[in-house]
Write a structure and sequence with these properties.
The chain is of the alpha+beta class. The chain is built from 14 helices and 31 strands. The longest helix has 22 residues. The chain binds one RNA strand through strand 8, strand 21, strand 24, helix 10 and helix 12.
RNA sequence: CGGGGUGUAGCGCAGCCUGGUAGCGCAUCUGCUUUGGGAGCAGAGGGUCGUAGGUUCAAAUCCUAUCACCCCGACCA
């Protein structure tokens, strides 16, 4: 492609409404333009990268036995009513009417459509297993779209749905296969990522993983072991911490102390001059049935609500309102404690590391000191309820330490079991002619977000540094002076030769000044740059430079094609995962 | 939806308080000179000042409403 003919409207200045690097750089590199909040046009350069990701996704999914189809973006309300989600989904579902007043929505996801299709077309266990996927635009009317392609309302997603006759199959030939395919996909994209254990909600089990591209600007926090494969979203992560540091209960007397208006851990810690690790904090929670609990943690620990929810085996947990706390504990917020607590007390393991602790007295403006477990209170359960932290022990292996990373979620795999199939009539006849609900899995990849996260992970202050497999072009030829006949002709000749070999090459044939060309080249981030200048050309050489490196090599014109081919092969091999 | 902020040329902004010819830089077009890291000179084009009402002899400027966009919270690929 000739630069002079391609729509690449680069910007020298940073657009005022962009905050994150991927957004800024995609705007500046002329890759995207906004039409409305969270809705973008992908310009030619961006589309080339998107297509590359899509191709990798297709190749790996096809290889894993999945089949591509394409479902409608506009979906009738009926199927959403039958799944119960027409009312449930909320304002994120963009609803529209046709000319006859019929109700439709723009598809935010396709469980309804795929299940509708399945129940009509798949009747027998002999047709299973089957895995169907598509790559298309989704529309989710997000409350707050932001960060360019990172969180758009319209975005490109690959969604896959698998159907199996039994759980063993679903996990082995379904979930595991997709997990491996995802690992290959992101490896082939040239991204540094981790597959982390994620919340499975009410389904339970370790059968959901988030694929997180590591980037300091990521919104998700993950903890990963430095010795084994364990890594998990901090929302779910466990650690070996609770097994260490346990102390015997102390022998101090329980003393009621006056602590006027001292509510928070910091306030009490300062007021009584004891460290927060000597405090036991008590939080009041209730589940979706309105049942209340008192949750105790060491003062310097944070409650992981997800762990609490899973421990209780309920659909949701909520922090109690101020009025409820007064009603349930007899004291205002800040003075709850396990001693004499009427509500069931559940303690995090961290409480075992506190002896002669400080707790609320369930009485306004009073706390207890010298509180010890066993003697002064007894929880109904001990559990891991705290947020795991950087530097703590790995729960899966010996000696491994967890480290914290920031990540961008680009994919998630779910084993769903029969949760949806039983509700949505996805049934087949088994060998006995009996109807059974099928085992389902669903698997998503944010394609446009993957491209954005690649930039988030690979850039410097001058611009993008594309991983070769998803770069819009592999090579950029930069003739410094197009008006110099020798330089121009050498550029054109090399351009022709590389094209002939099927190499994707961008020829900057603009008659711009060198500074503009160099800066644009850095901004666009094409992995291989070949600069053709008057002086080196006189000796029969061109300059060869990788975007990610500072080194410039002088290569004889006669060798440059081979050099490019070898370099492409080497860069691709880095991402092959072999 | 709650809180904060911004709408003036393709991009970045000034002008508004104190009403009176709509400006600057970059970009664009023409010509000449320049050409290894965002050139110089000369000239040109481009704006219903987000929109709708109101006040006024007169509104980008004051008032009212409204819309859009951005940032902080709950959601998610």
């Amino acid at each position: 492609m000739r630069y002079s003919r391609m729509l690449i409207p680069t910007l020298k200045e940073v657009p005022a409404d962009a905050q994150v690097q991927s957004h800024i750089l995609m705007l500046r590199a002329g890759m995207i333009r906004k039409l409305a909040a969270g809705i973008y046009t992908y310009l030619p350069l961006a589309l080339r990268s998107i297509r590359k990701v899509e191709t990798i996704v297709r190749e790996e999914l096809n290889r894993s036995g999945a089949q591509e189809l394409l479902m409608p973006m506009v979906q009738p309300s009926e199927i959403w009513e039958s799944s119960g989600r027409w009312n449930q989904y909320g304002p994120e579902l963009l609803r529209i009417k046709d000319r006859k007043g019929g109700e439709f929505c723009l598809g935010p996801t396709h469980e309804e459509v795929i299940t509708h299709l399945f129940s009509n077309e798949i009747k027998s266990y002999r047709q299973l297993p089957i895995n169907l996927y598509q790559i298309m635009d989704k529309f989710r009317d997000e409350i707050r779209p932001r960060f360019g392609l990172m969180r758009g309302r319209e975005f490109i997603m690959k969604d896959a749905y698998s159907f199996h006759i039994n759980k063993e199959d679903a996990l082995e030939s379904g979930y595991k296969v997709m997990y491996d395919a995802y690992t290959r996909i992101f490896t082939r994209c040239g991204l540094k990522f981790r597959a982390v254990e994620a919340d499975t909600g009410a389904i339970g089990g370790n059968y959901s993983h988030e694929f997180q591209v590591l980037a300091s600007s990521g919104e998700d926090t993950i903890l990963a072991c430095d010795a084994c494969e364990y890594s998990a979203n901090v929302e779910k992560a466990e650690s070996k911490y609770e097994m260490t540091g346990e102390v015997e209960p102390g022998s101090a007397e329980v003393v009621e102390v006056h602590t006027p208006n001292q509510r928070t851990i910091d306030e009490i810690s300062a007021f009584l001059k004891v460290g927060p690790e000597k405090l036991i904090k008590t939080l009041i929670y209730h589940d979706d049935d309105g049942k209340f609990y008192a949750i105790c943690l060491r003062g310097d620990e944070e409650l992981n609500e997800l762990k609490l929810k899973n421990h209780l085996g309920v659909n949701a947990v909520y922090a109690a309102e101020e009025a409820d706390i007064l009603k349930q504990t007899g004291a205002p917020v800040g003075f709850a404690g396990p001693v004499g607590m009427k509500l069931p007390v559940i303690c995090d393991f961290s409480v075992k590391t506190v002896a002669d602790g400080v707790t609320g007295a369930n009485k306004k403006d009073y706390h207890f000191t010298g509180v010890n477990r066993g003697r002064d209170f007894e929880p109904i359960a001990w559990a891991d309820l705290r947020c795991a932290k950087d530097g703590e022990g790995c729960p899966r292996c010996d000696g491994g330490i967890l480290h914290e990373y920031k990540g961008i979620e680009v994919g998630q795999t779910f084993y769903l079991g029969k949760k949806y199939s039983s509700k949505m009539k996805a049934v087949v006849q088994d060998e006995n002619g009996k109807d059974v609900a099928v085992e389902m899995g669903c698997y998503g990849i944010g394609v446009s977000r993957t491209v954005a996260s690649a930039i988030e992970q690979n850039h410097d202050d001058k611009g993008i540094i594309w991983p070769l497999p998803i770069a819009p072009f592999a090579v950029e030829i930069l003739p410094v002076m197009m008006k110099d006949d020798a330089v121009r002709e050498a550029g054109e000749k090399l351009y022709g030769e590389l094209l002939e070999l099927g190499i994707e090459v961008l020829l900057d044939d603009r008659t711009e000044r060198p500074g503009i060309k160099f800066n644009d080249a850095d901004l666009l981030g094409i992995p291989i740059r070949i600069t053709i200048g008057k002086k080196s050309l006189k000796d029969g050489n061109v300059e060869f430079k990788l975007r990610r490196s500072q080194d410039v090599e002088l290569i004889p014109l006669t060798d440059i094609v081979t050099k490019v081919q070898d370099t492409i092969a080497a860069l691709m091999a880095e991402c092959s995962g072999e």
